[in-house]
Design brief:
three-stranded antiparallel sheet, 9 strands, alpha+beta, single chain, 6 helices, 182 residues, binds ligand HQG, Arc Repressor Mutant, subunit A
Length: 182
Amino acid sequence: MDQNMITVSKFLSKHLRHTPEILGLTLQSGGWVPVDELLAGCQRIGFAITYDELIECVESSDKQRFSFDDTGDLIRANQGHSVEVDLQLESKPPPEVLFHGTVERFLSSILVEGLKKGKRHHVHLSKDIETARKVGARRGQPVILIVDAAKMHAEGFEFLESTNGVWLTDTVPPLFLTLSES
Ligand code: HQG
């Protein structure tokens, strides 16, 4: 993604996940908003995006943060919302293990309280260690926790997979966490 697309992606993430009202939008069920209303809202607040830029942003997003619906008339953020939204994801069995990237300064709290969702709707887990490392690296030297997802699932915890491959759950109690050596 070039610098312009990174700026557009950050702008869309903010408004499609956290503050749609600033663009005069209300998220529909599934988190969808009409593309034409989104573009009009962006223009209104002085951050005009062309339709072609929007398509380029969706297609080039490194983490597939956004998607269009089948008609192409609606767009949404695939995950990461703080506003109330039903993403209509189905609960499904997770892989045996999942990973969470964080940083040293959160570890003592995490190992006592477990992983908490904070402002987000879910705890976000990665299916491979490289992705978890990148998530952790947003905050400093990454530290990786291994989540015994199979055991959690066997004990009744629910998991959802977002359309961009992030695994979501409500909480991960400490007994399911192991610190990765790598
Ligand atoms: C930590 C980005 C203390 C947790 C990424 C994390 C991801 C605790 C931070 C997605 C804790 C929350 C989500 C506890 C959790 N005590 N700290 N009990 N439980 N934490 O940003 O997982 O670029 O809400 O380890 O790539 O870092 O936005 O979650 O460090 O996919 O598309 O509290 O956001 O994607 O931070 O990242 P976040 P996250 P986007």
